Amino acid sequence: LDLPRTPRRSKVGQQRGVRGRSRMLAGTPTYWKTWFPAIRLGAPKKTGFLRETPSTPFARRRCGAGFGTNNLQRTRALRQQESSVSEGRSTGSKGEAVGVPTFQQAIQRLQNYWSEKTKCVVWLPHSTEVGAGTMNPATFLRVLGPEPWHVCYPEPSIRPDDSRFGDNPNRVQRHTQFQVILKPEPGNAQELLLGSLEVLGINVKKHDVRFVEDNWESPALGSWGLGWEVWLDGMEITQFTYFQQAGGMQTDPVSVEITYGLERILMSLQGVNHFKDIRYNDDVTYGELFLQNEYEMSCYNINEASVEDARKRFQLFYKEGMELVEKKLPVPAYDYLLKASHAFNVLDARGAVGVTERAKLFGQMRNLSRDCAELWVERREELGFPLGQSRLGDLGDAAAEACGSEPLGSAQDFLLELGSEELPADEVSSAAGQVSARLRELLAELRLEHGEVVASGTPRRIFAVVRGLSPKQEDRVEEVRGPPAKIAFDGEGNPTKAVLGYCKKNGVGVEDIELKADKKGVEYCWVTKSVRGEATGDLLSARLPDLVSKLQFRKSMRWSSRATYSRPLRWIVALHGDSVVPFVACGVQSGRTSLGLRDGFHVPEIEIPTASGYFGQMEGSSLMVDMEERRGAIWAQSQALAAAAGGVIPEGMRQELLPEVTNLVEYPTAIMGSFAQDFLKLPKEILVMVMKKHQRYFPVEDAKTGQLLPSFVTIANGEIDEATVRGGNEAVLTARFEDADFFYKLDMQKRLSDFRPLLEGTMFQKDLGTMLDKADRTDALVGDLAEAMGLAGAREVALQASHLSRADLATSVVTEFTALAGVMGKHYALKDGAPV
User: Fold this and answer.
1) pTM exceeds 0.85, yes or no
2) Rg, the chain, Cα only
């Protein structure tokens, strides 16, 4: 049946309007209220434990695939077919084939993997609504203090603002995260994550797996960390974060958080296009279990929740939490923080939180979270930290012990490579420039002769090669001034202790001293001595740690020591000729071993014999380490693919997107993808925004008309299966375009002027009223301003423009794509026939 679509409420930026909501159940047919299949629990049978009630023919027709006995039988048949197919499957840690899991099998596999690999405690979901697995006390409280802690658990995460009544195939108000905490961080968490993907049946050798910067911050919890989104063929499947602060307290030691989005992963693995079609187990689908919950909770979150009562609950929960803190009970106090947080999220979904109130409520939650965090650590200390203690190390002494290198007989190339986990794209260029500049300054200060300095980088390495670096400083003769003559000798002309110490320090005798007067006529002791140049290796060993530690980043982090870097530093290569220049920086000992592209869990080592052979060694390992070479290759490959499709990559992308994409990969492989022609009915700005900002795809245009073509180019990293990666990226883009299409069609049901009243639901500023009040004040100024400027003839048009100028802030498209504010206002106004 073609039932009426659920009107989604409008939103203003990140603030939602309360007024003008559509009441879902009013005026709709009776079946709309009960369109979920009537089911009853029966004794377990071979046909499954869910049986359809014969008296509900509508349920069978409405719910489609996944409902009814025949569909369940087809599901089991499909599973049997899948179990017999091994091609393209991943293999587990013991080499056995790993098939596509059901939802509950995915949870079981992850629990088994992490509990076996890292001895994780298998925890349980929390009993209070949480917005993410991070908010479970097993994460938020346990990452605090010095106690080691490895844990994993599934967590139903409730986000009222993502309510879509079950209509949106990719977004739900209740989704399931799988959470992993490793404290302290083990040093190979990224590789462990890739191993877990193999366990889920993902062949990471075929797919394009990427770590893309996505730093996390929770103002309400006073917490933040640095990390990435983990992309699988363009789709975010995991969040990976190194916690730096929780509850306003610095974490020591640092914890790694890995968060899987299970619905998203399982939709991809099972090849379904809607969350309701995910096979939860062999007998039931996700929709059969949760679709009714999704619909009814959306009704509550969007239309039925009392704003007044939610505000009262927030303050009651906050008050109770603070009282529990006073009673030294951090665990129940934290529970009330979670309850207050959920009340806030309901208010936010109802569009009842303005800018000023948001800041006030955030401040209250931040205060309570800080008090809970401090009290938790205090109570654990009183108990003697039962799980033991592990602190960040101080590695200063290790650096000093590492010094000492063999001198070379002639000038040789010098190589410095700083290998890390994936750097943010913009940090690669910045860090390479800093290394080049600081190295030049250092060599000049040390008086070491050299040739050209070449510096560049990739997401996982910053390097510099110095051509023809001298093996040692030149020997030199220098004059050294000593104490004044009147201090150096007593009244009888005998040397004093001061001058004897000066002579000893400089390796000369008193007879070698020469007295010279300065410009003021004061005589000083001077000696001339020969200084032998120090070996380059010894000089660099002593100074390179300082060079590394002083690199500046937009945001720096700690991981296993108190040293900081943009992301964890994992290896250092320092070679002068064929000799290692030994030193320690950020807890990492230099050597001659670099790392190549990840091959699943395995990361191949690359032994570099000499500094001069670095580029050839990297090229032979399928690494394009020079930034400019990579940039040129990406642009050339992309334009060639676009030309084959009869189009061109817009020239603007050379500045807007190419620099970022260049520093997201180490060995680029361009892949052409396509999308449905029907999506071209959407405004071009929406499509380009999705491709460029959200997916880092190059759009393809008709070279003559500038119109978009139904094609795009994505850049994969390394050797992958092109068909697999293309299909994955096309599916992701289709899902994003479907979201955009949904929002755009909702907006098109109204005139732009109809959105203006919704601005009343958002507070602009406590003393200045709502966004609508602000818009009204602007309208009141326009007429007088036009008269004052002598533009009376434009007065009416200016009033129309002013009246509509902020209306698009309440549209669904601008809420999802805030950068299109104004752009969509123009589009909707022209659609409504506004004068140009």
Assistant:
1) no
2) 33
